[in-house]
Specification:
The complex is a heterodimer. Chain A is an all-alpha fold. Chain A is built from 13 helices and two strands; from the N terminus they run H-H-H-H-E-H-H-H-H-E-H-H-H-H-H. In chain A, helix 1 packs across helix 10. Chain A is globular, with a radius of gyration of 18 Å. Chain B is built from ten helices and ten strands. In chain B, strands 6-7-8-3-9-10 form a six-stranded mixed β-sheet, sandwiched between helices. Classes of the chains: A mainly alpha, B alpha/beta. At the A-B interface, helix 5, helix 6, helix 7 and helix 8 of A face helix 2, helix 3 and helix 4 of B.
């Protein structure tokens, strides 16, 4: 039973993490190759606070706030860059995070932080917390998609110059996407730290950023259901098949390439096309 | 006081003077034609008025306010709207939602307001009416990639109208259309002028401009050539010289 709980917890955290990137990249069209940095910020903040005897549900709040604040700074710095330039900038942020953490003794340096306390009610308690956070983020994503905020994000994602001609303050909307998305990654990171109970700088490197990007691309950029399914599957594959974990970058990189080349709308797009064909019959 | 007053604006790109000391005024309830040969700086003027580029000299006033340093979104909120020369539909949205997005622009003045508003029905109703008005109500649910250029041009006009502008800037709306389509769209443009709305029409199709505009502004090589009644402009030797390079006898 504890194995199933661990798998479900991994799935919930991965879905939350992937949906947080989906909000930035899928909804608002801002490519990020450094999303793992915000996952890491949330993990370190939550781990240090729970080691100082704060309960995890409370510690997740400053974890989200800290990740969101750094997200605002990165967002402000990235406002003037687009597309591939934005991707390179955010990739730099990811490397910067790992580089900084490695040199901070207070954060465990190269060795990382171990002995992260378990959550009240143990593994089932952590699963419940992860499920609640995941469901809340799914509901938030659905609400944003239906609101005028989602409409504005969609127009910015499509063509931000045209969005400006509707009177939309593109910078503010892009910043909000960064704040909500990075705060969500911070919460996911806090949960991850207490799931694995050990974190180090390499847990949040480029491979993690590519992994989460693969979840979004394979699921279908912008699709809540598609990204959730892809995140659930891709998060559990390494648990079932050891070689997936050994060749993570190769496999996820290939998945990104294959999806972008042959099915750029991902799982969601394939399902939608099949559904339309069935309706047409 | 004019609705729009552009005074002595200049802008230089690299070594090229795109616009040099140009002044232009649009009055309330006016349809002003804006013509000039290729490279005259017409689109640059439009971009200066919309705030997409900032002039290095001169000022732009709209509704009595100096908006020279204002951002595009603030100018739109004050009552300017633009249908661009190169059509820019949002390809992920239907024609209806392209227009509805503009019709609901007031819900998106800031992210919090946009977050708190969910209902799109009113904006969609308004969009439906506007698409009917511009004559493409029958393709509401088509995507931009599924309709001809003429339809997208009309959608762009509907989208600009949805912003309820006091001044509508149209940048070569007739470009790429056949004679019949151009004539129909020109008739539609002529009907857009109301007591609360003026239109500045940049166009290469001089025949249609002369047909629907009572007054025409002419620009050449980034400088103002003339602004006068349409018939006087059309009869002037300066205009022929600007377009055909004719020399005076």
């Amino acid at each position: 039973m504890s194995y199933e709980i661990a798998v479900l917890t991994s799935m919930s955290i991965a879905i939350l993490f992937a949906l947080s990137l989906n909000l930035i990249t899928g909804f608002c069209g801002q490519v990020s190759l450094g999303h793992a940095a915000f996952y890491g910020i949330g993990a370190y903040v939550a781990a240090m606070l729970t080691k100082a005897d704060l309960a995890l549900p409370i510690a997740l709040i400053p974890a989200a706030v800290m990740a969101g604040l750094v997200g605002v700074l990165v967002g402000i710095a990235s406002l003037r860059v687009r597309h591939d330039f934005l991707a390179i900038t955010t990739m730099g942020v990811g490397f910067l995070f790992v580089g900084i953490v490695r040199k901070q003794d207070a954060l465990g340096g190269e060795i990382g932080i171990s002995g992260i306390p378990s959550v009240a009610f143990g593994r089932p308690g952590l699963l419940l917390l992860a499920l609640v956070c995941m469901v809340l983020f799914i509901l938030l994503s659905i609400y944003i998609r239906r609101s005028w905020l989602g409409f504005a994000f969609e127009s910015i994602s499509d063509d931000e110059d045209t969005a400006r001609t509707f009177g939309i303050d593109v910078s503010k909307f892009k910043l909000l996407a960064f704040v909500v998305g990075t705060a969500g990654a911070g919460i996911a990171g806090g949960l991850y730290a207490h799931h694995i109970r050990f974190i180090g700088p390499d847990s949040f490197g480029f491979v993690e950023s590519i992994t989460v990007l693969a979840m979004v691309i394979v699921g279908g950029i912008g699709s809540i259901a598609g990204v959730a399914v892809a995140a659930a599957v891709l998060a559990t594959l390494p648990l079932w098949l050891q070689f997936v974990d050994d060749y993570k970058l190769l496999i996820y990189g290939s998945l990104i390439f294959i999806t972008m080349r042959f099915a750029p709308t991902g799982i969601a797009g394939i399902v939608h096309t099949l559904w339309q064909k069935r309706q047409a019959k | 006081m004019s609705l729009l007053e552009v005074q002595n604006v200049s802008i230089r790109f690299g070594g090229v003077d795109a616009v040099r000391g140009v002044s232009l005024a649009v009055e309330e309830q006016q349809l002003l034609g804006f013509i000039g040969p290729n490279g005259a700086g017409k689109t640059t003027m439009m971009r200066i008025i919309m705030g997409m580029v900032r002039p290095q000299q001169g000022s732009v006033e709209f509704r009595g306010k100096d908006i020279t340093q204002w951002s595009v979104q603030h100018r739109v909120q004050l009552g300017l709207a633009l249908a661009q020369q190169i059509v820019k539909p949002l390809h992920s949205l239907t024609l209806l939602d392209n227009v509805a997005l503009a019709a609901g622009a007031r819900h998106m003045r800031n992210p919090l307001q946009a977050f708190l508003n969910v209902d799109r029905s009113e904006a969609r109703d308004q969009a439906r009416n506007l698409l009917d008005f511009v004559g493409i109500g029958n393709v509401n649910n088509a995507f931009p990639s599924e309709v001809p250029l003429g339809f997208i041009k009309r959608m762009e006009v509907a989208r600009a109208l949805a912003l309820e502008p006091g001044l509508l800037l149209l940048d070569e709306p007739l470009a790429g259309l056949n004679q019949t389509e151009a004539r129909d769209l020109a008739d539609l443009i002529a009907s857009l002028v109301t007591p609360s709305r003026s239109v500045l029409l940049i166009e290469h199709n001089i025949g249609e401009v002369a047909r629907i505009c009572s007054e025409i502004y002419v620009q050449e090589n980034g400088q103002r050539l003339m602004q006068d009644k349409a018939e006087r402009v059309m009869a002037s030797a300066a205009l022929r010289q600007a377009y055909l390079g004719e020399h005076k006898a």
